Amino acid sequence: MQKSHPVFSPLIQGYWRMAEWGMTTQQQHTFLKQHLEMGITTVDHAPVYGPDSACERMFGQVLALDSSLRDQIEIVSKCGIYRGEHPQVNHYNSGKDAILKSVDESLSRLQTDHLDVLLLHRPDLLMDADEAAEAFTQLKAAGKVKHFGVSNFTPAQFELLQSRVDEPLITNQVEINPVNLLVTEDGTLEQLQQQRVQPMAWSCLAGGRIFSDNSEQMERLRHTLNEVAAEIGATSIDQVIFAWVMRLPAKPVPILGSGNIERVRSAVGALELTLTNEQWYRIWVASKGHGVA
Ligand SMILES: NC(=O)c1ccc[n+]([C@@H]2O[C@H](COP(=O)([O-])OP(=O)(O)OC[C@H]3O[C@@H](n4cnc5c(N)ncnc54)[C@H](OP(=O)(O)O)[C@@H]3O)[C@@H](O)[C@H]2O)c1
Q1: With a threshold of 0.90, does the pTM exceed it?
Q2: Mean pLDDT calculated for residue range 200-215
Q3: Interval 47-71 mean pLDDT
Q4: 10 CB less than 6 Å from ligand 1?
Q5: By 3-state DSSP, what share of the chain in percent is helix, strand and coil, each rounded to 5?
Q6: Catalytic: 15?
Q7: 18 CA to middle of ligand 1, Å?
């Protein structure tokens, strides 16, 4: 594995889909041990992953099974999204009390006494940055959270929160893949690069659609990704996509979504691959359907 970020590993294992993997606690334990052996020590969670927070709960059972694991991993979790049932709607809440309560609930489900990283999951139009900062200060002082960051924030939202929080926000977790180019175009990655904040990249494989969708864009992308795979000696197009994401100068850290350990192993191989500028842009052109000016 390449040199690590001080807080998270060069690849992160996402646990959003854990409840769909159909694994027993013992099999989940084996999966975690296997990706740890590959150097993937950081795991990504959120209270909204799985029905009734099932993913945090299941992961907590794995940690309870083997108490030696907690010191070998960094746990990222999030807060701020609330599911509503009719007549209520899904909504966001990053008020101080909501943040404190959400973290306590995550800690209880995960069967741990601290999170390594807490992210505000989505920008909340009602966020009072002073209140959120107060919650962060309190969580840090209590030893419940070591580092803080955000997810899906625009540069302005990031700047606002950072202006009130004493510590540096350590990441903005955003969607990055060759299908959705938004953060490469709206200033998000430039701002993170400027501040030397490493983004975490979610859904690098567009949630798997890149393999199955029959749209013209996906057909073009698959054709070009296969072409580049042959040129650089990649064993799969997912390796090319991870290399494409990591080639961005903000140095995004991919969050893997697969529950298939061989696909996780393949992703680790992408750390050894580098795309030329021309190969990177060939994939961009395939996504856009037109060339650069
Ligand atoms: N902050 C946020 O708002 C946010 C949003 C979404 C996700 N996330 C985080 O990012 C992580 C990754 O997101 P993601 O799960 O959408 O990642 P992804 O890598 O884009 O998609 C993973 C899906 O693709 C499938 N897949 C992978 N390789 C494949 C292949 N070669 N052929 C066919 N299907 C393949 C996987 O199935 P298999 O399991 O069968 O391999 C899995 O269902 C999540 O776990 C979560 O931690 C964060």
Answers
A1: yes
A2: 97
A3: 98
A4: no
A5: 50, 15, 40
A6: no
A7: 10
C-alpha closest to that of 286 among 237, 217, 214: 217
**Ligand 1 atom closest to residue 16's alpha carbon, by position in its atom list:** 45
- Going from the C-alpha of 205 to that of each of 135, 178, 227, 251, the distances in angstroms are 34, 8, 17, 17
From atom 26 of ligand 1, which residue's Cα is the shortest distance away?
208
Report whether residue 217 contacts ligand 1, using a CB cutoff of 6 Å.
no
Per-residue pLDDT at 2: 60
The DSSP result for 1-20, as a single string, is --PPPSSS-SSEEE-TTGGG
Name the average pLDDT for the chain: 97
Q: Is the CB of 259 under 6 A from ligand 1?
A: yes
- When comparing pLDDT for 172 and 4, which is higher? 172
* First vs last C-alpha separation in the chain: 37
Identity of residue 129: A
Q: How far apart are CA 252 and CA 179, in angstroms?
A: 16
Among residues 150, 249, 251, 250, the alpha carbon closest in space to that of 192 is found at 250
Q: Is residue 3 scored above 80 in pLDDT?
A: no
